[in-house]
Design a protein that fits this description.
Helix content: 55-70%
Radius of gyration: 54 Å
Strand content: under 5%
Oligomer: single chain
Order of helices and strands: HHHHH
Number of strands: 0
Structural class: mainly alpha
């Protein structure tokens, strides 16, 4: 009897285990349970995709800002380059003007020499002849005709570059160029 009882206990335990495991398997393989698991998995994947998309959008926005900064720098450099090209063109123009002789359309008349007239008493009215003072010599200063001549003449007078530029109406760069070529 002990043997029958032991067999019945083992069969009963196995039957309970079988029913329990069958219920668990049935519960795990149930369509609604599987659907919930799939939904949970899909939601997790969507969350990961959203995070990845937000990170990529942030990277793209940072790159766009960086490119806009580079474009602004390029625009500034283009403006500076245009200024430099203009400056070089003006310098080349000044060089070519300095190489060409300046031809005035109408030659300037020679400056008039104004004689100095001294009021001397007539020899009849003076009893003793006084030595006549020698008249001061009249110095003719010809007026320089070209910009180069005017700049060099003003420099010989000891004027600085800024004053020469103001007097002649030329730029300081032109004055410095003329002075450096004729040092």
């Amino acid at each position: 009897m002990d043997l029958v009882l032991s067999v019945l206990i083992v069969v009963a335990v196995q039957l309970v285990s079988f029913l329990y495991l069958r219920g668990r398997i049935h519960q795990e393989l149930n369509a609604t349970t599987l659907l919930k698991d799939v939904q949970t998995e899909v939601e997790g994947m969507v969350r990961e995709l959203n995070l990845s998309a937000e990170r990529n959008i942030g990277l793209l926005e940072a790159r766009i800002e960086e490119l806009e900064g580079l474009l602004a720098q390029a625009d500034q450099k283009m403006v500076l380059l245009a200024r430099e090209v203009d400056r070089r063109e003006k310098s080349a123009e000044v060089y070519t003007q300095l190489k060409r002789p300046v031809v005035d359309p109408q030659p300037e008349p020679e400056p008039e020499v104004v004689p100095v007239v001294l009021d001397l008493p007539s020899p009849k009215s003076v009893e003793s002849p006084a030595p006549a003072p020698s008249p001061e010599p009249v110095v003719e200063v010809p007026r320089p005709r070209s910009l180069k001549e005017r700049v060099l003449a003003l420099r010989t007078q000891g004027l600085d570059v800024a004053t020469i530029a103001q007097t002649t109406g030329a730029t300081q760069g032109e004055v410095e160029l003329i002075l450096s070529l004729n040092s």
